[in-house]
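A brief tutorial aside. Many learners find it easier to grasp structure tokens once they have seen a single protein encoded end to end. The record that follows does exactly this for Glycosyl transferase family 2. Read the sequence first, then the structure, and try to relate runs of similar tokens to stretches of the chain.
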Amino acid sequence: MVPEEASVRPAGWARVAVVIVTYNSAGVLGDCLRALADEGTPLAAVVVADNASRDETCQIARDFADLDVTVAEIGRNAGYAAGVNAGIAALDLAHLDAVLVLNADCRVSPNTLQVLASALRQSGRGIVVPRLLYPNGCQQYTLRRKPTVVRALVEALVPGGLAGRLGALGERVTDPRAYEQPGVTSWATGAAMMLSVTAFLDVGPWDESFLLYSEETEYCLRAADKGWCTWYEPAAVFEHVGGDSETKPMFASMLTVNKVELFRRRHNRMHGACYLVAVAVGQGMRAIAGRPTSRASIMALFQPSRRMQELPT
């Protein structure tokens, strides 16, 4: 359904819809919707794609008065990619220019969506990502270089976030200066991404076989395979609370397994084995040092029976 305010969209503005993926998101969804309502862009549609929340998430979405919100209930906790696909499936893409894919724990700043949409209009850009800040205003290091064996090994051997300070040798971009300038990135954190409808129709749906992690990596790399780049636009600022991938062993192990699996799918057997070794070296060293997330990651890498086959409900 197209909200009434879409009819008064200023001339030249992009037709934007929003898909918010939720799972037990009652504590953050209201703020996310409020920020969208206050942002200033007349939205073509807002869809909350819910992964079988057990809290009041769906009711909060339905009761929100200042936006016309559609709830797409998936019926199970199928993951982020499944939520994105279900949300986009509920949209009429023929009448849209772009779709903002959003975590429920993100808050858009005022007058931001058209900044992203304007960046997306440039030839060859299929995905645009904003600058993400923590609630305390600190920069989130969300930009990534293309995964390689050398980068995996560097990040295995160099402690903490120091690998990102070694220029192109690290996968994660941690130079604060890089976040001041717009430009192409290989991939970025998927908490907030604006997708060109034209690019989405060309690239296809997100890969639901990646549960919770690496789905945005796979999508950005697959888009690049088809000639669509991912563009970073720092003039668009979002607040993002952040997740548990670095603190909870279950999620950390899923992240590790998924990134190895993604690399294997995109490379030959030898390169895949080398990447696995590089990741295992880093996780093994940290496991020996007593890090629980690394112990869980090592066990999941080498004992498939310990891997998460489906998300908890």
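Self-check: The chain is about 35% helix and 20% strand. If you spotted this yourself, you are ready for the next section.
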